[in-house]
Design brief:
YbaK protein; five-stranded mixed beta sheet; protein biosynthesis; lyase; Prolyl-tRNA_editing_YbaK/EbsC; lyase activity
């Protein structure tokens, strides 16, 4: 299995993780579909969304796969008056990642990452390894340490 930038970052930090490959279905890139393929509940598979705050600029939000991002809660947590999703056509240029493969680790630039507080409910969680078809499974505290994650209630 080829290591991704996200996996190499974890290696450099001495963080334990497991890479889990799965078959990609381009018709369904949802976190729920990924969860089924990696054998975890959708609440344990955290999707990474790219958001722009009116004051902060680009930030990332990691929320459970079966949840929706509460933009008002994210805006408040990040010191913005409002926040909006970055248009999909801009995500690759900003992060270096394509839809279905956005990771909170190893983007072109280190953006602040806000993580839904439900991450603390699980012994392990999955995040994108930075490519479609591969997830990183690791302990929540290890992920938070690696990304400098800011834990807050941002999902509904």
């Amino acid at each position: 299995m080829k290591k991704t930038n996200a996996a190499r970052i974890l290696d450099g930090l001495g963080i334990e993780y497991r890479l889990q490959e799965y078959q990609v279905n381009l018709d369904d890139l949802s976190a729920e579909a990924v969860a089924l393929k990696v054998g975890l509940p959708a609440q344990q598979v955290f999707k990474t969304l790219v958001v722009r705050g009116d004051k902060s600029g680009v930030i990332m939000a990691c929320i459970p796969g079966a949840s929706e991002l509460d933009l008002k809660a994210l805006a408040a947590a990040s010191g913005n008056k409002k926040a909006e999703m970055v248009p999909l056509k801009e995500v690759l240029g900003i992060t270096g990642y394509i839809r279905g493969g956005v990771s909170p680790l190893g983007a072109k630039k280190a953006f602040p990452v806000y993580v839904d507080d439900t991450i603390e409910n699980w012994p392990v969680v999955a995040i994108s390894a930075g490519i479609r078809g591969c997830q990183i499974i690791l302990a929540p505290d290890a992920l938070l340490r690696a990304i400098g994650g800011i834990v807050c209630a941002i999902a509904r």
